[in-house]
Amino acid sequence: MKYVLVTGGVVSGLGKGVTASSIGLLLKTCGLRVTAIKIDPYLNTDAGTMSPFEHGEVFVLDDGGEVDLDLGNYERFMDIKLTRDNNITTGKIYQSVINRERRGDYLGKTVQVVPHITDAIQDWIERVAHIPVDGKNGPADVCVIELGGTIGDIESMPFIQALGQFSYRVGAGNFCLVHVSLVPVLNVVGEQKTKPTQHSVRALRGQGLTPHILACRTTMVLDENAKGKLSQFCLIPAENIITLYDVPNIWNVPLLLRDQKAHEAMFKVLNLHGVAQEPNLEEWTCRAESCDLLHEPVRIALVGKYTCLSDSYLSVLKALLHASVDCKKKLVVDWIPASNLESPTAKENPDAYKAAWKLLKGADGVLVPGGFGDRGVQGKIIAARYARENRIPFLGICLGMQIAVIEFARSVLGVQDANSTEFDPHTKSPYIIFMPEGSKTQMGGTMRLGSRRTYFQTKECKSAKLYGSKSFIDERHRHRYEVNPELVARLENAGLSFTGKDETGQRMEIVELPNHPYFIGAQFHPEFKSRPGKPSPLFLGFIGAACGQLDAVLQSSSIVDNGLSKGVGSDISAVNKAYKNITATKTAAYRTEYIYGSCNGLHF
């Protein structure tokens, strides 16, 4: 087993996760089997109880693991399925060591950070690295490990000590360290400053780790003078210093690594010459170039609670992007704080109210994602009603589906007090109820989590057709509340159709309005299994409906691959060829545009 460790220096938020994902993809296209591990030094056992404002979205795995959003990047880039153990936290390590101490496994010894914590970290890495994640038998060839945080953080020190020991445990030729660091440019002098990176590498060496490859985050290509300084003062060969400059979308990052021969540098350190082949990124290159050249927009109004931090809905954004590229449209996301659509805002902040409604009325589609708590709920209900009454394509995810049911009960059935017991525990019309197996005292890990099976009640509905007319599908869940099964008949008699249910038939999984161009709600989170080139079927249908291509999407969905639609734009090379006639001037202009629109430009 070979190991590639990715660390970060100077500042956080440099893009270590994207870099690690890109390294994994690059090695995979070289014919190697790859797995990944993310180390988060915080004391939480997992990301499940952390606020999206604090740490971005909580990504959910097939086994129900609630993990850091970087594992979503790993899965999307490398097309693998990870487990909860692929996310290591300080909380997990200390919990396992304390449990062993309570059992008496240490035979009365004084339990210390070194060697007990550091040994536990090394054992965990080695064990998880051998778990196959690509659907094949046997362990992977390479394990990419990302150490969260920044070199010098107090909470990272046990992990750095453990990884230093681990490099000796696995031996030379089996361990490669890639250090991602910032090379800033001061506007006053306009010069790339290498001193922060020099200090970062020195700090890393002082803690027992020596980088083999330096990945420099910059706004532009690293000049030769700066590269020479880094090579001289950091004691790293110039050919092992890679520039990761700002790009219009993160699909270009693996191409930067390939073009600068990062794979050859890793092959040399890991003794993989003669084993691995040259990377084959032709399809990925076509997809990245096509994405950069798209210019005909599709506007999606995302009505949510956490709209001030785009990472809160990272997987939703990625799924929208995958689908829009498949439909050959440039994605523009209009962020609408749900509470800004509510009538109290019209009095308190009329400008925000008018701006929110202007965005909603100008959208080609309306998406209400998952969330918790009652803030902004009325605004989400208003958005669902607007989409339903004006026949605007609508996709509701998790809470978004529940909102759609409440809105239908209020507006169509006339049950004005219809509500969820999450928002009003004493409501007399509980259309959404707490699941009987849930816990109201323990928050972490007590929801309905992970991959669950949904059975289609008819193959003639839009959702079934989008999934290739399958009898059932497996999607990932994360919720505590569900549609009240005692009120389903009343809703269906009024025209709402529950087209997907669980194996018992009592838990509603998919809801549709048959007489609407596209109005679908899903209790599960389809965004977690969306991949570049293999968009989530519900997202593909949503974007298709938003840009007038739903019939073509439904027709193409009759051909399925592993349960995912190939979509209307699966011939990426043909798309790329079609855009070759665009002038160089336009191409340069499009490349500098932000792929998610003005609110979320993606410099990685």
From TrEMBL:
Ligase in keyword set: yes
Domain Glutamine amidotransferase: 309-543
Pathway(s) of this molecule: Pyrimidine metabolism; CTP biosynthesis via de novo pathway; CTP from UDP: step 2/2
Keywords for this protein: ATP-binding, Glutamine amidotransferase, Ligase, Nucleotide-binding, Pyrimidine biosynthesis
InterPro entries noted in UniProt: Class_I_gatase-like, CTP_synthase, CTP_synthase_N, GATASE, GATase1_CTP_Synthase, P-loop_NTPase
EC number: 6.3.4.2
GO MF term (any one): CTP synthase activity
Domain CTP synthase N-terminal: 2-272
Protein origin, superkingdom: Eukaryota
Gene Ontology process terms (BP): 'de novo' CTP biosynthetic process; pyrimidine nucleobase biosynthetic process
Family annotation (Gene3D superfamilies): 3.40.50.880, P-loop containing nucleotide triphosphate hydrolases
Reaction(s) the record says it catalyses: UTP + L-glutamine + ATP + H2O = CTP + L-glutamate + ADP + phosphate + 2 H(+)
Record's function text: Catalyzes the ATP-dependent amination of UTP to CTP with either L-glutamine or ammonia as the source of nitrogen.
Annotated family: Belongs to the CTP synthase family.
PANTHER family named in the record: CTP SYNTHASE
HAMAP family per the UniProt record, alphabetical: PyrG (MF_01227)
Protein name: CTP synthase
Taxonomic placement: Eukaryota, Viridiplantae, Streptophyta, Embryophyta, Tracheophyta
